[in-house]
Design goal:
With about 270 residues, this protein is of the alpha+beta class. The protein has helices at about 10-20, 25-35, 65-75, 90-95, 140-155, 165-175, 215-230, 245-255; strands spanning about 1-5, 35-45, 45-55, 60-65, 85, 105-115, 130-135, 180-185, 185-195, 200-205, 235-240, 260-270.
């Protein structure tokens, strides 16, 4: 086996590995394009495991070989580690390898990963009704979508979003990642992609105020957005959510998503 630090010349090799595990490595794909430090282990002439240390200090692991060595190698000397993420069986071993077993933990996130081949997308009946449209958000939608983002944070996280979270609304709108479902021209739901690649997207969330729920709006907004990017050549979609979020899980299954992996994130207290 050979342990290496990857650079941009190694991108084809890394993408081959990510493409072989598109659902369980989505966060690592995002981290690669955001400039994270990556380590890989090679055996028999191919990559058999990777680890990454991203810009916010999180270490991501995905390997069946040399886990401890990979976890240590991806962290530059003296760099801070704020969290460890990956398959539940690998995260504890990575924490031990990094010498963080005694560090205080502020949050443990237990999530599931769901995958959809877009050829298997189930389009809700609602999208065939007159007056229903799914489209990309426009500048004119920004005030409403900003207000809904504030309401989303207050409802889900019990906090007000900071300036960076609100700036994401305008950024994602400009990148074409925000979508709205309209009924008779009025926005009744919004959906977003957390990441968009040439053949893969990650669904972030669908949201509408409580008075507009239980009407198939949420899953219809996601389905309409996925159908649109499928026409552009995207072949798969990933969604991750808390393992206890049954509402999202059921709605995703109705669209054709299936549970493929568990995912764990351990967030450490600030030293």
């Amino acid at each position: 086996m050979e342990l290496v630090i990857l650079d941009r010349r190694d991108q084809p090799e890394l993408l081959d590995y990510l493409d072989a595990h598109p659902d369980s490595t989505i966060w690592m794909r995002i981290a690669w394009y955001d400039g994270a430090r990556f380590a890989a282990v090679r055996a028999r002439g191919r990559t058999v495991g990777i680890a990454a240390h991203d810009k916010i200090g999180a270490v991501h692991v995905h390997t069946q070989e040399a886990l401890a060595e990979l976890a240590r190698a991806c962290v530059a000397p003296g760099a801070r580690v704020s969290a460890v993420a990956g398959p539940p069986a690998q995260v504890p071993d990575a924490i031990v390898a990094l010498g963080l077993g005694g560090r205080a933990v502020t949050r443990i996130s237990r999530e599931i990963i769901m995958w959809l081949d877009l050829d298997d997308l189930v389009v809700p009946e609602l999208l065939g009704r007159d007056g229903i449209e799914v489209r990309r958000a426009t500048e004119a939608d920004l005030p409403l979508l900003t207000d809904w983002r504030i309401r989303y944070f207050q409802e889900v996280h019990r906090i007000a979003p900071d300036a960076d979270a609100l700036a994401e609304v305008r950024r994602d709108l400009g990148l074409g990642r925000l979508w709205v479902l309209t009924e008779g021209g009025t926005i009744v739901n919004t959906a977003a992609f957390n990441a968009v690649f040439s053949r893969l997207v990650q669904v972030e969330f669908a949201y509408s105020p409580p008075e507009l729920r239980s009407k198939q709006f949420g899953r219809s907004a996601v389905a309409g957005a996925l159908a649109a990017v499928r026409a552009d050549g995207v072949r798969g979609a990933v969604l991750n959510t808390d393992e206890n979020n049954l509402a999202v899980r059921v709605a995703a299954q109705l669209l054709g998503f299936r549970l493929t992996h568990e995912f764990r994130v351990i967030v450490f207290a600030t030293e």
